[in-house]
Amino acid sequence: MTLITDIRLRRVLDSRGNATVEADVLTESGGFGRGKAPSGASTGEYEAIELPAQEAIANARDDALPRLVGEVHAGNQRDVDAALRAADGSDDFSEIGANSAVAISMAAAKAGADVLGAPLFQHLGGTFRGNEYPTPLGNIIGGGEHAADATNIQEFLAAPVGAPSVEDAVFANAAVHQEVHDILAERDLPAGKGDEGAWAPSVSDDEAFEIMNEAVETVADDFGFAITFGLDVAGAELYDDDEGGYVYDDGVKSTEEQIEYIAEKVEEYDLVYVEDPLDENDYEAFADLTDRVGDQTLVCGDDLFVTNVERLEAGIAAGAGNSILIKPNQIGTLTDAVDAIELATRNGYESVVSHRSGETEDTTIAHLAVATDAPFIKTGAVGGERTAKLNELIRIEDNAV
Ligand SMILES: C=C(OP(=O)(O)O)C(=O)O
Ligand SMILES: [Mg+2]
Q1: ipTM of this complex > 0.95?
Q2: N or C end of the chain, less CB within 10 A?
Q3: What does the record give as the active site (predicted)?
Q4: Domains of the chain by range and CATH?
Q5: How far apart are CA 56 and CA 9, in angstroms?
């Protein structure tokens, strides 16, 4: 029933106005699925390769489609993704592009779900999944590679950990975003928005901590449940070997100073989440920080692990982090992403499913987070390409997908 009968690939826009790959998968019994690849800006050194959209499309048409159309069933995700890997032949999807691979992988999953008449999260996670919902981490203030002349730390993320429902959590994050707007206006601080819709004021990181803290406290009082916050430091973007450490506007921190700085911030602000606090090549420093604060907060590897089971295995052996960020396009297929999640779970690491800074209206990650019982999803707070996922979570919770 789910035999793939046609795949169509086209170039469409992402949220930055760049070209990305959209895939349509059709099946024998009329099933249909559409997937779109997102795109990173602060990409990890070890990510799968994104090719220019036209090149990825041309290569996938030549190499991948003959192995899929009339050959593989969309309902069998492992077969679809194995065919994509075989068609590519490299370790990092540098032949057909991780952007073509992930778009086809997600489109096939949706076509499989369509034929089965099941919501995507149920097709991916099985019938016993879907009663636990992730807490959305909302990007509220940001800089780094996502906005010029703003904070050094890439993302300050609201975490409505006490919300009684996904719906309440989503609205709480939007309220924190609005509250920060008001605080910035009171302080006469003009601010545009970064790539993910976070405010990008020209303030020091210390001032951003203060503003976030004030905003989450105000909104927590209004909403009547606990809201804290977390960070994506994007440490690999700050680290410069030639400078001997992490380069901030107010000076360079050695690795030891960076560990101390992050540990102090975890204590001071009760941070629940710290992503990429250190460089992507420094398992040892991740392990030191995890030793210090790992019982208080999630120490999450994004550029460190790049959704890759081999890098996660190395991290587990080193005691680096206690959490992994899951970005399907970082590795190329849903199978690879789920393998990373399963390895993480077996080893007591939490999985946090994530968007990219360049996004589309695609909602697959909302379903993936529910399908895998992820405790958190990172998918922004405002902006159409972000609310596409947040609103889908509300629908999933309301049994309306
Ligand atoms: C979402 C992120 O940014 P990008 O997509 O630019 O890697 C991130 O670093 O977690
Ligand atoms: Mg990150």
Answers
A1: yes
A2: N
A3: 196, 327
A4: 4-117 (3.30.390.10), 135-397 (3.20.20.120)
A5: 10
